[in-house]
Amino acid sequence: MKNFLDFEGPIIELKDKISDLKEFMSSKEIDLSDEVNKLEHKLQQLEKKIYKQLTSWDRVQVSRHPNRPTSLDYIQELFTDFLEMHGDRTYGDDPAIVGGICRFEDQPVTIIGHQRGKDTKENIYRNFGMPHPEGYRKALRLMKQAEKFQRPIITFIDTKGAYPGKAAEERGQSQAIANNLFEMASLTVPVISIVIGEGGSGGALGLGVCNHLHMLENSTYSVISPEGAAALLWKDASKAQLAAETMKITAYDLKELGIVDELIPEVKGGAHSNLTAQAKEIREVLRKSLAELKWLERNDLMKKRYEKYKQIGHFSIKEDFKRKVKELVVN
Predict the structure, then answer these.
(1) How far apart are CA 319 and CA 292, in angstroms?
(2) Nearest 5 degrees, angle CA 100-CA 66-CA 156?
(3) Which of 81, 145, 157, 227 has the smallest set of CB atoms within 10 Å of its CB?
(4) The whole model's pTM is what?
(5) Burial of 25 (0-12, 13-18, 19+ CB in 10 A)
(6) Residue ranges of the chain with pLDDT lower than 50?
């Protein structure tokens, strides 16, 4: 089974060549601008070709890219005066979820997000972005605080799922997530969620009950990972690629199904290739969502949130299909 990183190899190689050539120009004071421009043009064409033909499984791999921007990366780019808050006032602090108060274009907001690491040491500290119950309780504490002071809530979703370990279960993992779902459904302030990487299972949904749900182009959102689904359905985790295609977990699939409000395009080469440019795309969507939601009354916010989730899974039967069913029943 091919990994997306196998396809990305030529892109990385070409980027390295461009970097080496620029360094050579700088050190030797030789003008090789024409050669650099040709290579950069070739790189653009290669990225366009590769990213245009991504399969669902390829997008899963992109969403897991080790250099993909995290919640803290976007917080630094999009918000000002960020004050991080810690602890759930019950057990302790969970580094797998970060949150606090800040400003988005001078508007006070509460920001909460899953946080994974970028190297082994940080991943261990962040528990690979898989929250414990205290993480969800911390998130809910910040949400209730935002409701008290009438601040909009913005969440960044990026987790394989909630931590399934013994200690997490002993401290009430399922109850913590369920409580978040219950409480978020009735919040009287705007809630905007953006899937920036993987959105896995209840661990993602614990921050995802919202008025507007947006997804980056190469992110995923599902009840289980493709590997987990393949292991359950076919007793073979190596069939993850088939599961990814079947499950309809990409942003394009979910937009078509009416689950996602807006699909956020990624810059050429993926979000990991240019954080600043990607943050600009997110900024436009956030600005639009906040403008649309901030004038709604409290009851309207709850009502629209209810209607949004009530529509998920709704389907209609075509008249010709109804007729065939009636014929079968009669005969």
Answers:
(1) 37
(2) 25
(3) 81
(4) 0.82
(5) middle
(6) 1-2
